[in-house]
Design brief:
The chain is about 45% helix and about 20% strand. The chain contains 12 helices and 12 strands. Helix 7 links the parallel strand 3 and strand 4.
Length: about 325
């Protein structure tokens, strides 16, 4: 039989109202009474009905996080930091993997609304703009700019400029930019824009290659890179839009007996933890993942509490040079 609020109140020798105030942190309650209620709750193994509490408070202290997939190292680290900073602010999270499926992404947003989350952090972006606008919830997006919705991004153009210039400064004569699908309207596409602009302005040959919509298939990465190197054996500089793609470029280069960095130089983007563990260690553009996560929670928390927030939030990047260049 489930333990109720009345059971806790009876054993603690207080009223049901007092127990409710302890649970919801409302009104003055002495430390002695508060500790007694908590002690009885523990003894009875009482679990508060969070849904009922959220209905009464009109706040669930739960936020939804939608990412493409937690299996990708960047999004795994992002989810880790988001959860940590959410917890510091008193929130729990509901984590959803969309796999870049518009139907799945929409179903998850509807599920989160149905569970009355306080807000959503969106790092997966296949839904139409109108669908975001109709959510009627505090939202923060990663790498997608939608009018009136706060977004967070690293300085993608600057990062790509640093990477492309370094490859050219190191003597590369033919460059390749390898990325996920550019069909999504993401701010990360500025990496491709900067790569092309720098290569053209410095009169260096270049080529771009992109995966299909499912951008997290490592076998697809390998196949794409292998075919690229086969069709363009003179490529001597690679800028990858993620460290995961760069790791696959290292693997294929070694399989084809391309010496790194003598025959080919490789730069990634993100500076996830694995980038310094690769052999050779990966040169990359560092996104401040932890700072971006902290800011996302801060922006969402401000919206939840009806405070003004900055819409445009672009954080600086840094070039981390290691052994692949």
């Amino acid at each position: 039989m489930a333990i109720t609020l009345k059971d806790v109140a009876k054993k603690a020798g207080v009223t049901v109202t007092t127990v409710s105030r302890v649970l919801n942190n409302r009104g003055y309650i002495s430390d002695k009474t508060r500790n007694k209620v908590y002690q009885v709750m523990e003894e009875l193994n009482y679990q508060p009905n969070e849904i009922a509490r959220s209905l009464s408070k009109k706040k669930s202290n739960i936020i939804g996080i939608i990412i493409p997939t937690v299996s990708h190292p960047f999004f795994s680290e992002l989810a880790f930091y988001l959860e940590a900073y959410a917890y510091q602010k008193g929130y729990k999270i509901m984590l959803c993997n969309s796999q870049h499926d518009p139907k799945k992404e929409k179903e998850y947003t509807e599920m989160l609304r149905g569970n009355q989350v306080d807000g959503i952090i969106m790092a997966s972006h296949t839904m139409e703009v109108s669908e975001y606008e109709n959510l009627d919830l505090p939202i923060v997006t990663f790498d997608r700019q939608i009018e009136g919705i706060p977004y967070i991004s690293s300085d993608n153009y600057k990062g790509a400029s640093l990477a492309t210039n370094l490859l050219i400064d190191k003597g590369c004569k033919k460059l390749a930019y390898i990325s996920g699908s550019l069909s999504l309207n993401l701010l990360a596409n500025k990496r491709n824009e900067a790569f092309i602009n720098i290569a053209q302005s410095r009169n260096v040959d270049y080529i771009t290659a992109q995966t299909d919509m499912n951008v997290f298939n490592t076998q697809q990465y390998e196949g794409l890179i292998r075919n690229l190197f086969k069709d363009h054996p003179d490529i001597d500089g690679v800028f990858a839009s993620s460290d995961l793609i760069a790791a696959n470029a290292i693997k294929v280069s070694e399989q084809l007996n391309k010496r790194i960095p003598k025959d080919i130089k490789i730069i990634g983007y993100d500076d996830i933890q694995m980038s310094s563990l690769l052999i050779p260690e990966l040169t990359t553009i560092r996104q401040p993942i932890e700072e971006m996560s902290s800011l996302a929670i801060e922006l969402l928390n401000k919206q939840i509490n009806d405070n003004d927030v900055e819409i445009d939030n672009i954080l600086p990047v840094a070039l981390i040079e290691r052994q692949t260049t």
